[in-house]
Design goal:
The chain has a 9-stranded mixed beta sheet. It has a 4-stranded antiparallel beta sheet with strand order 2-1-3-4, with no helix packed on it. By secondary structure, the protein is α/β, with parallel strands linked by helices. The protein has 9 helices and 13 strands. Strand 3 and strand 4 form a beta hairpin.
């Protein structure tokens, strides 16, 4: 490995401590320092977006990979406005999940696999990451890109329906109107879910859920504007009706009516008023009655 490039990667990873000062998991920094981003964003020159809210982009003047080791978006497909996500944004989100070595992770929306590799570095060789990508071409790229991480299984399909058994972590990298029943069903005791709960405008908030025996604790860790899930949006109305009838999981509009106000960035609004009716759902091999999506205060360190 080029020592200069390795130093740039380490600098980039440690700079996340200043971009996201609430990092509680030191494995995150080591993971970002270990994964070569250039393997996942195609050959340079690269289209770089330094400010996600301005969306102004520039093309790098050369193919030096050090351009990639800054807190920037890197375009994967400009026609779809599809980018390799902002490192500080996802570092903060993953930090809220408290991912440990050896845990089982479902990643929905793997893209070309960069954050799948970051997750693999966090869980280590005895953990497992199932990286699901609905776009077959992207899934094929991710499969090839992740050859050096045997603990990652890439699945081409709809992440809402892929069933890999019990899970410690579900992390969704694209916006959707409601969580999948299967995601909640497969979380073990203490399991955590993080997803962007968004409307058709792509805006919403980051929903964090923790499994607590026969209930779920949920909170917002802030606002978000993010690329939507592809297949779930196509049948959003039918699935929302199904989810509300079977699990009583609200979509974004219902969350807002239940006490969550305008989900602006940095919101600490407590989701405290929603009390769905109890229903029966499966949890691995056990069956738990009176499961409900209950609410707690903001996550520790929410901003």
């Amino acid at each position: 490995m080029d020592d200069t490039l390795a130093a740039a990667r380490r600098w980039y990873a440690e700079d996340l401590l200043y971009k996201t000062p609430l990092l509680q998991n030191p494995q995150l920094i080591n993971a970002f320092a270990s994964v070569p981003r250039e393997l996942f964003v195609g050959p340079g020159p690269w289209r770089i977006i330094s400010d996600p809210y301005d969306n102004s982009a520039f093309l790098t003047p050369d193919t030096d990979p050090r351009w990639l080791y800054h807190d920037v978006l890197v375009t994967i497909d400009p026609n779809r406005n599809l980018n390799n996500g902002m490192p500080s944004f996802w570092a903060r989100n993953l930090d809220h999940l408290h991912i440990a070595r050896g845990e089982r992770v479902l990643q929905v929306g793997a893209g070309t696999g960069y954050y799948s590799a970051v997750l693999a570095e966090i869980v280590g060789p005895f953990g497992r990451v199932t990286a699901v990508e609905t776009d077959p071409a992207l899934a094929a790229q991710a499969q090839a890109n992740l050859a050096n991480w045997p603990q990652v299984d890439v699945v081409a399909g709809d992440g809402r329906t892929v069933d890999v058994g019990e899970l410690d972590i579900v992390v969704v990298f694209a916006g959707s109107t409601h969580p999948s029943r299967l995601w909640l069903d497969r979380l073990v005791e203490g399991g955590r879910l993080l997803m962007p709960l968004t409307s058709e405008s792509r805006r919403g908030f980051l929903l964090r859920v923790v499994r607590r025996r026969n209930r779920f604790e949920a909170s917002s860790i802030g606002g978000v504007a993010v690329y939507p899930c592809m297949r779930s949006k196509a049948c959003r109305a039918a699935r929302c009706r199904s989810a509300r009838c079977t699990l009583m999981i609200p979509d974004l509009a219902t969350w807002q009516k239940s006490g969550f106000k305008d989900p602006d960035f940095g919101s600490k609004e407590i989701l405290s008023k929603w009390r769905p009716h109890p229903k029966v759902i499966g949890i691995g091999r056990n069956r738990t009655r009176h499961s409900r999506l209950a609410h707690c205060g903001p996550s520790q360190g929410a901003n």
